[in-house]
Sequence to fold (329 residues):
Amino acid sequence: MAYFQWAPYVPVAVRRRRAMKKMEALRKKGVDIQPVEIEGRTIARTFWGKGWCDHLEGFSDFSNRLPRGRTYVRNGSVCHLAIGRGKIEAKVNGSALYNVTVQIKTLPAKRWNAVKQRCSGAIGSLLELLEGRLSDHVMDVVAHRKEGLFPLPGEMSFRCSCPDWAVMCKHVAAVLYGVGNRFDHRPELLFELRGVNHDELIQTDAEAAVSAATGRGKAKRLASDDLADVFGIDLDAGNGAAVQANGNLTRRKATKKPLKTAKKAAKKTAKKTSQQAAVRKTKSTTNAKVVKQTKAAKKVKAVKKTKAAKKTKAVKKTKAVKKKRSGRS
Ligand SMILES: [Zn+2]
Fold:
């Protein structure tokens, strides 16, 4: 008898059924099971999802190991995949159900600050950022091989509970592709994974827009007084429009509001001014009319007076003539 025995072959369908049962049991225990479900053959198609896969495939450390995971992720073997800060946890169905953990270092502050600085003023909104509707410049910055948001091989470590564990087994490879697919649907998870706040990319953008509008060039911070000056309004600190005491704008949710409010107020003021101008115009027009009317009336009056006077004179003259005549006769 051989000292080594092959594990008995278990058909894929049976393995899958077993995995499904285990997932169901975990779900009942309250675990938020998030399977990777891929429609068709394309694993990732968006800027973020495809960017992640392309990035990892670009490293020779991974390039010959990753392809083994493609079939696995396509056929639904990644039964669960959860992404958190610096960590990916997954369950992959192989000969048995294996637990995979991928540790990823959070983005160093220096690198994050550099990304923010380079993207400053170039990202229109959070929606544009997450949908990957970005300029070529921003795309180059965030997806930069060494200086971008995606992790370097040295920042990643893997673990799998399978017996044929190597540097990267096919289960880990499948999970890494699964992450790409997840970023297609929830790109904000990349920022969560790297431990950075995507709002900060937009915040920098909003501040830059304001400083550009005020003609202060590269001034990055605007004090609340400045904002009020720019738009000629009082910023209501109680209305979520909080501006911190040190003059820094608070997170985007708060930042957007005063900006919006300020813009609205500026618009309102502009409207009011134009209305006032219109009123002034009307007034002056009316005045001119009145003057014209008065002048005309005066003229008429004068003419009438003259006429009347002439008439009276004529009548008097006639009367006098008549009198004279009757006196003669
Ligand atoms: Zn494995």
